[in-house]
Amino acid sequence: MKIALTVNGEARQLDVEPRLTLADLLRDQLRLTGTHLGCEHGVCGACTVIVDGAPVRGCLTLAVQSDGCTITTVEGLGSPAALSPLQAAFKRCHALQCGFCTPGILMTLHALLSSEPDASEDRIKEALGGHACRCTGYLPIVEAACVAQPAYQGGADAAV
Q1: What is the pLDDT of residues 21-69, one digit of tens each?
Q2: Which one-letter DSSP state was computed for residue 28?
Q3: Positive or negative: CA dihedral 124, 81, 30, 14
Q4: Rounded to whole angstroms, how far apart are CA atoms 41 and 129?
Q5: Up-side HSE of residue 128: CA atoms within 13 Å toward CB?
Q6: How many CB atoms lie within 10 A of CB 66?
Q7: Whole-angstrom Cα distance, residue 81 to residue 58?
Q8: CA-to-CA distance for 145 and 116, rounded, in angstroms?
């Protein structure tokens, strides 16, 4: 099937099998390997990407369901030379260890803070409830989200 979508600001037209997942499309066809596959059952959150402003599990979403959509992956948040405020806050707060879960968590938090820039610490913790991280204990992740909040509120880059 032919689909058209926008990924990280770039319009793409692709021919995909109807059973191909969005995560596999991103990783295998578009080579955006920041989207990680963990459980492939939607439980761990490692495959989370943003589709039309909402976080979704890439392993549970068929690529054909994304036809006409705008998708943002972790590669679309920033670059190694210019981290996004959230990525910079993660670095500053040591909110990552092995890094496997980090892209999905970043995408969930980016979606949350984009729609709720004044989210409470409890709301941030609730949003992280669908992610499995075995390394950090979540406290530095919550701290990083709070540090990045002013950037989402239209304030100065809080991660500097």
Answers
A1: 999 999 999 999 999 998 888 889 999 999 999 999 999 999 999 999 9
A2: I
A3: positive
A4: 15
A5: 27
A6: 25
A7: 26
A8: 12
| Beta partners for residue 6, in sequence order | 11, 70
Which two structure tokens, joined as six digits, stand for 152? 């989402």
Chain-centroid distance, C-alpha 50 = 6
Contact 129, 94 (CB under 8 A): no
Q: State the residue for tokens 């909402």.
A: 54
- Range list of β-strands (E), 21-61: 48-51, 54-57
pTM: 0.91
Contact 105, 134 (CB under 8 A): no
CB 84 within 8 A of CB 50: no
> How far apart, in whole angstroms, are the C-alpha atoms of residue 59 and residue 25?
10
Query: Residue 37 contacts by C-beta under 8 Å, 6 or more apart in sequence?
Result: 23, 24, 27, 46, 47, 58, 59
Give me the residue label for tokens 């390997």.
Answer: 33
